[in-house]
Design brief:
This protein is mainly α and 229 residues long. It folds into two domains: 33 residues; 190 residues, Penicillin binding protein transpeptidase fold (Orthogonal Bundle). Strands 1-2 form a two-stranded antiparallel sheet. β1 and β2 form a beta hairpin. It is globular and about 60 Å long.
């Protein structure tokens, strides 16, 4: 029994120390990515297995405002109002979950940024819980402008294609600063499934979604005062 208690005590210490180490690494990366150009876990994963990726980091000021508004309208229309988590949407998803778990997510742009920077792909309750905690930290530490800039520069827009600048050049042969409303909306429709959805060759459903995003983007743009702060 003494040996078993000793083993449990050692295991508890290892878990505590590992948790503290991960918290320290997370805090260090949040501080680093507040001033340095970040890379996502998917980019790192490709590098580890010897695959290349394409990404050209651009400042928020060098992205067409309509493109910023289109992505926010599509992914997180309450971006300026929430604290990193859309609690109402999360409650609706959890309340409507079946025995196999939620059929859809409720991720804000801040949550997606946290996931892409620090966590692994795929869905799980554990990862979602960690993601929420990290998003709340980012919501306190980073400005809204920095958060959306990072998101737009690490979002996946195709196999090995990351960031809106690389996506704009790949699909439309122009800079992100030159995107028009239709192109911006098509890029926004690709985000939920960037491997299967091609902004340059949109499916009929993508065209319908893009039309809806275009109709909402201007209204969203009028509510993005948080990006100027």
């Amino acid at each position: 029994m003494a040996r078993r208690r000793f083993s449990f005590a050692n295991l508890a210490r290892i878990v505590v120390f590992a948790g503290l180490a991960l918290l320290i690494i997370f805090a260090a990366l949040v501080a680093l990515y507040g001033v340095a150009r970040p890379v996502s876990t998917l980019m790192l994963g490709r590098t580890v297995i010897g695959k290349s990726y394409e990404r050209s980091y651009v400042r928020l000021a060098d992205i067409a405002p309509i493109a910023v508004a289109s992505v926010i309208a599509s992914e997180d229309d309450g971006f300026c109002q929430n604290d990193g988590v859309d609690w109402d949407a999360l409650h609706d998803v959890i309340s409507g979950a079946g025995k196999n778990g939620p059929s859809r997510g409720a991720s804000t742009i801040t949550m997606q940024t946290a996931k892409n920077l620090f966590l692994w792909p795929g869905r799980s309750t554990v990862r979602k819980g960690i993601e929420i905690g990290m998003a709340l930290v980012l919501g306190k530490v980073w400005s809204k402008a920095h958060t959306v800039e990072v998101y737009l520069n690490i979002a996946e827009w195709g196999d090995g294609l990351y960031g809106i600048e690389a996506a704009a050049q790949h699909y439309f042969h122009k800079r992100a600063s030159q995107l028009d409303a239709h192109e911006a909306a098509l890029l926004a429709t690709s985000l939920p499934n960037p491997i299967k959805r091609n902004a340059a060759r949109p499916s009929p459903m993508q065209r319908i979604l893009a039309a809806h995003i275009m109709a909402r983007a201007n209204d969203t743009a009028d509510r993005l005062d948080c990006l100027a702060k």
